[in-house]
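To whoever is on call:

I kicked off a structure prediction for a single chain this morning and the downstream step that reads the tokens threw a length-mismatch warning. I double-checked the sequence; it's 323 residues and nothing unusual in it as far as I can see. Pasting both halves so you can look.
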Amino acid sequence: MKDVCLWLANHAAAVSPVRPSSSGDSAERAHCHLTISPSTLVVRFEDPATANCSVTEKAFSPIGWEGNLATPTATMDHFLVWSVDSMTEWNITAMCYALSDHGPCHNNLPVIVYKPPDRVAISFVNHTGPMFEGRHYTLRCEVQDVAPIENLIVTFYRGRTALGQLQSNNTEKTPVTEIFTMDIMPSKEDDGVQYWCEAKLELGPEGPEHPPVVMSQKLNATVLFGPHLTSPTKLQVREGESFTGEVRGNPQPSVTWFRDGQVVAVPTHSSREHAGKYTVWTKGLGEKNFTVEVEVIGGSGTANSCNRYFLLAILFIQMINWL
């Protein structure tokens, strides 16, 4: 029996991995009634792991495992468990083999050994401090000591909005540190938002139910931008009301109102003589002028409300008299 097991082991070690695209291998697999569970072994580095190999027909002699870690002894039973107390290797080969009436056969067990990142950090490339609206900047996400890097997905965020996802072409199985970058062009709406990145290991259906995720710190963005008018360029106000044009910028701009070339104060109680066109001159991150047209409507809202209440009171008194 020992000679048979030794022959099987030597034969299995010499056989190349199964490739479904090969017609010869496909024919061999059709007669190889070996089942491995799980079909892919996903295990965190230094965690224990097990896999079971079983035969589905009786016409098999010993089955065994071949690999570079904790190989069990071949058995005449119809199943054999490969067990590892602590996964301490990154490049694992594991293969179940057996001898049937059709000759020797084997199935390979894909093994993914993973390790979440130690740290994920976000920063700007060659830039510190405030940004300017409309200029190009590069975000940098550094993912430290993660494996396998080819299963990693890095997502950049602006607040809760995902800006894009990146993956690595590196096929290294051992932990590596890699840097991912994304170009951005901030606008005034980005002033005060937070940028951050997230590293997630996508390990497939045999992996953890909740894939390992590590997030970076959050960068508070300050965006400098020139003055712009946030209120309408055509204002409609009632007599007695005030009006103003809202101007925003970072830094906050100074605002001066002109009418007919003269500096004027914005009235707190409008009258018909205040109707017309005004020039709003602003100075902040640059200088800019805006034209605002003001229309003043006769009659105050307060007087109209009083008149309505007076008429309602008269009507109410008349109704009481009728009753």
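Update from on-call: the warning came from a stale cache, not from the record. Cleared it. Sanity check on the structure: The mean pLDDT is 85.
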